[in-house]
Amino acid sequence: MAKSTRKVSKPKASKPAAKAKSAASKQVRLKTVLCSTDLTACGQQALAIAAELAQAHDAKLLVAHFVQGVDERYDFLAGDLARRLAKEAKEKVQAELAHLHKARAVPVEVIIKKGQPATETLKLIKARKVDLVCIGSHGRGLIDRLILGSVAEQVLRLSPVSVLVAPPTVASHDMIHLLCAVDGSTCATTGLEWAIDLARREESKDITVVNAYEVPVGYLEAGMSYESARDKIRAIHQQDLDKTLKKAAVPDIRFDPVIEEGPVAETIIKVAKDRKRDLIIIGTHGRSRLAAFFIGGVALQIVRDSPLPVLCVKSEEHKIGLLGLLGSL
Known about the structure:
Layout: H1 2-24, E1 32-36, H2 41-57, E2 60-67, H3 75-99, E3 108-114, H4 117-127, E4 132-136, H5 142-147, H6 150-158, E5 162-166, E6 178-181, H7 186-201, E7 206-213, H8 226-248, E8 254-261, H9 264-274, E9 279-284, H10 289-293, H11 297-305, E10 310-314, H12 316-326
Parallel strand pairs: 1-2, 1-4, 2-3, 4-5, 6-7, 6-9, 7-8, 9-10
Antiparallel strand pairs: 5-10
Helix pairs in contact: 2-3, 4-6, 9-11
């Protein structure tokens, strides 16, 4: 009887330690990574990063290419085209894995379908229970930069899962040097959780955490000087950043906090470039179906203007709202 009592008491003693550990070791679990590609050089950037992330998570990699405008009467040609594209896509995936010096192959499935790329990508996300989408943006000129590329922007807006957008030129496909943009919101905290998880998987030891702010023009009407308003606003953002980092603190990752004044998207990109980061991670807002569609001006502007890959992390509320929208597809 005495032995039995001692056994029951042991879990009670270990509860506080377990609780503390769970707060600092939240894992992002990806089972399926989807790369939606047009098989151009731009699509290859997304493919390389998708392969890297799939490897890091021991996840399956789906590589999808969508063929548009094939006349139904020429199905015999479409069949040959599909086989050629599937072979080409597989060869490119394996070549990229070899280039990345992977210790073992990533499980890959190549999917060739007819249809509009954005719509079919969104259907595939739901049908195959995808956890993360990687897609390229072209950005060849001013117009492309403004609209991001219709496929990438539609997927970014409507995907119920997180989306990584890769620009045409990526200096490195490594995900070691990370920058996470935060603003004190729950969405930003979710983005930081992804950053911590990725840093651990890539054996990185530090994350640059940026909180950017602008001084609103209303300070004059409030009877304040610019300097006084700036200092008060900076203090508020400093408090938000300190609170976020304290909550997210883990023993094996060092945070490099940065608070900068300036246009938010532009400032975040500048810090990332100056500090030679490999990836920008940002949580996106979306508290309703309508808010979910408009992913957030700052996040969208960062994706449009960044020369670096950007990972837009969707919150659970965002996911629920967008799954409702996808039900109509």
